[in-house]
Amino acid sequence: MAAYTMYRGDTFYATGRVLDVTGANYDLTGAKMWMTAKEDKDDADVDAIFQVSSPASGIDFTSPTTGAFTIIVPNTETEVLTDQAILFYDIQIEDTDGNVFTINTGTITVLEDVTRTTV
Fold this sequence. Notes:
three-stranded antiparallel sheet, elongated, 1 helix, single chain, 119 residues, five-stranded mixed sheet, Immunoglobulin-like, mainly beta
């Protein structure tokens, strides 16, 4: 479980690596991944604050055979967040056999930013 902190209106960026139960790198080749963030865990996915996925919607497998990935949530998705919000998130993968695994869960604390204009 991981806790992140971010500023409202900033691009959210995180990297990670998936390991199997033995601690070895998990091969993500052909897999799918999602990160979903919600204000309430019971909200439907369509009501999520944001949801990004692989292969071309915010999650990139930077080294699939070693389980490495990068998550980028654009600032346009986070500028609508309220000050001091606490979001709940999870990251799930679906392997090539259709098995779904939750690989991480936690919270994202949203801090108030000062600058509210665009450059």
